[in-house]
């Protein structure tokens, strides 16, 4: 099939590259000239494991193309995915749909034959209806159908998630769009991967409901971890025991410093706003948002407590700046709030992250944070070392070496990577989440 993807950010680029890898002919469009120039030379502007090779192979084999010419790409396509950003709107937390509607207007002018326009961006319920209205108004004679096909991929595992999804959700209002989208996903072997067709508004809500549910699941286990500390129980065993029930499942039950990233924080707020506007508030989601916000502050307090209540003029090493491993994304990362809170209390921070340094350096000045070259450099002369993101390279640190370089051997493990025995035998005092001594 001939597919155009409008917006070559995270979702657009991964989707475009994977669809090309299935054998479709794909053009990825972006209005950022520099980005397209780089992609034409197979230089991928984001870090995502496996994406460089996937993009390079599919360019070489002639299935993946990049352009700034939206009209040219759309006029040749049978299917156009809209994968532009939907950031939080300043002030009210609603999703900002400026880019979606701008793309729809441009697409409208370029439609030639019957075209299916598919929203892949995370958009509030009713956006598909509005996209349809925008296109109809801009081009009353166009033959088109608007569908919703939310994406469920995770940063750091995006290619595997796209190619081996648990399900594909498609919202359509007519059979033609249904047939076209079935053909788009046929290479996935639809006997194995369930493809679910529903109405457009319902598909839009499935995406928000999924992210909100996962955010609630994480928040639930985080609160239980605090309770474990009060009751002398072990959160990891509680999570294991819970997760063995098939109705609950073992995933997204890792207690930690609170969820971050470009999706859960923004999508939970947007869903809560939508529900309030519809006079049907989602109180569980509202509480989740509030609890997660508080959790970041409480994480900084834990570090301070581990330093005997004072961090002024002390040095704190921070391992991990990204919101999770295997990404260079630091958006809404708990590390940033923790660093800020430590700085506010007068601490000096030395931070190390395998991929997040560049993005972090744009937000934090070098007066605020020293960016270390490896975990041992981050720990140099430190009064405490804090693991905020569970990168694999932090899982088998040389504890003896850490002890030698640190001023005092205190490890605050906000991801429960280590255990008491191992760390205490190495001569450290150890602080973790939901596992009392
Ligand atoms: C999330 C969803 O998992 C994807 O399905 C969805 O497509 C995506 O948002 C999106 O809407 O685009 P992502 O934000 O990439 O994906 O990352 P997750 O792996 O879901 O992690 C989100 C946050 O939750 C991270 O800060 C992570 O550390 C935290 N988390 C996750 C926990 O604290 N505990 C867990 O058990 C799992």
Describe this protein's structure.
The protein is of the alpha/beta class. The protein folds into 2 domains: 2-198, 3-Layer(aba) Sandwich (Rossmann fold), CATH 3.40.50; 206-437, 3-Layer(aba) Sandwich (Rossmann fold), CATH 3.40.50. It is built from 17 helices and 14 strands. Strands 3-2-1-4-5-6 form a 6-stranded parallel β-sheet, with helices on both faces. A 6-stranded parallel β-sheet has the order 11-10-9-12-13-14. The mean pLDDT is 96. The structure holds uridine-5'-diphosphate-glucuronic acid (UGA). Uridine-5'-diphosphate-glucuronic acid (UGA) is lined by residues 122, 151-155, 211, 214, 218, 252-254, 256, 259-261, 263-264, 323-324. It catalyses: UDP-alpha-D-glucose + 2 NAD(+) + H2O = UDP-alpha-D-glucuronate + 2 NADH + 3 H(+). This is UDP-glucose 6-dehydrogenase. It is an enzyme of class 1 (oxidoreductase). One of its GO terms (molecular function) is NAD binding.
Largest sheet: 6 strands, parallel
Radius of gyration, in angstroms, nearest whole number: 24 Å
> What is the rounded distance between the termini?
59 Å
Low-pLDDT windows of residues: none
Task: List the quaternary state of the chains.
Answer: single chain
Assign an overall shape: globular
Spatial sequence of strands, sheet with the most strands: 3-2-1-4-5-6
- CATH fold-level assignment of the largest domain: Rossmann fold
* CATH architectural label of the largest domain: 3-Layer(aba) Sandwich
CATH superfamily of the largest domain: NAD(P)-binding Rossmann-like Domain
Estimate percent helicity: 40-55%
Into how many domains do the coordinates divide?
A: 2
Overall residue-averaged pLDDT value = 96
Give the amount of beta strand, in percent.
5-15%
CATH class of the largest domain: Alpha Beta
């Amino acid at each position: 099939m001939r597919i155009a993807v409008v917006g070559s950010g995270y979702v657009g680029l991964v989707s475009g590259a994977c669809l090309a890898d299935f054998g479709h002919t794909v053009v990825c469009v972006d209005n950022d000239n520099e980005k397209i120039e780089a992609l034409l030379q197979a230089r991928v502007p984001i870090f995502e494991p496996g994406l460089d090779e996937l993009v390079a192979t599919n360019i070489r084999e002639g299935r993946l193309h990049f352009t700034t010419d939206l009209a040219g790409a759309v006029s040749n396509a049978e299917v156009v995915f809209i994968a532009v950003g939907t950031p939080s709107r300043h002030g009210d937390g609603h999703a900002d749909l400026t880019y979606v509607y701008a793309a729809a207007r441009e697409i409208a002018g370029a439609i030639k034959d019957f075209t299916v326009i598919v929203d892949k961006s995370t958009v509030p319920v009713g956006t598909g209806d509005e996209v349809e209205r925008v296109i109809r108004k801009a081009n009353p004679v166009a033959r088109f159908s608007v569908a919703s096909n939310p994406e469920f991929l995770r940063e750091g595992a995006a290619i595997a998630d796209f190619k081996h999804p648990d399900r594909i959700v498609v919202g359509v209002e007519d059979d033609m769009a249904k047939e076209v989208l079935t053909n788009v996903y046929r290479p996935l072997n639809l006997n194995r991967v369930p493809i679910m067709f529903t109405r457009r508004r319902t598909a839009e809500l499935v995406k928000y409901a999924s992210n909100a549910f996962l955010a609630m699941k994480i928040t639930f286990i985080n609160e239980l971890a605090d309770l474990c500390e009060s009751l002398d129980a072990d959160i990891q065993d509680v999570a294991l025991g819970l997760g063995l029930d098939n109705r609950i499942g073992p995933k997204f039950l890792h207690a930690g410093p609170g969820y971050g990233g470009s999706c859960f924080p923004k999508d939970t707020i947007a869903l809560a706003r939508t529900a309030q506007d519809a006079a049907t508030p989602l109180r569980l989601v509202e509480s989740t948002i509030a609890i997660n916000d508080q959790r970041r502050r409480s994480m900084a307090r834990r570090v301070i407590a581990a330093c005997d209540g004072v961090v002024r003029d002390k040095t704190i090493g921070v391992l991990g700046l990204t919101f999770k491993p295997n990404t260079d994304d630091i958006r809404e990362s708990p590390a940033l709030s923790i660093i800020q809170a430590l700085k506010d209390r007068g601490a000096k921070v030395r931070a190390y992250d395998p991929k997040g340094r560049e993005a972090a350096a744009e937000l934090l000045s070098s007066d605020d944070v020293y960016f270390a070259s490896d975990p041992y450099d981050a720990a140099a002369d430190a009064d405490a070392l804090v693991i905020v993101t569970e990168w694999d390279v932090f899982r088998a640190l040389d504890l003896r070496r850490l002890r030698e370089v640190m001023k005092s051997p205190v490890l605050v493990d906000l991801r429960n990577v280590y255990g008491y025995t191992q760390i205490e035998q190495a001569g450290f005092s150890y602080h973790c989440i939901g596992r009392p001594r």
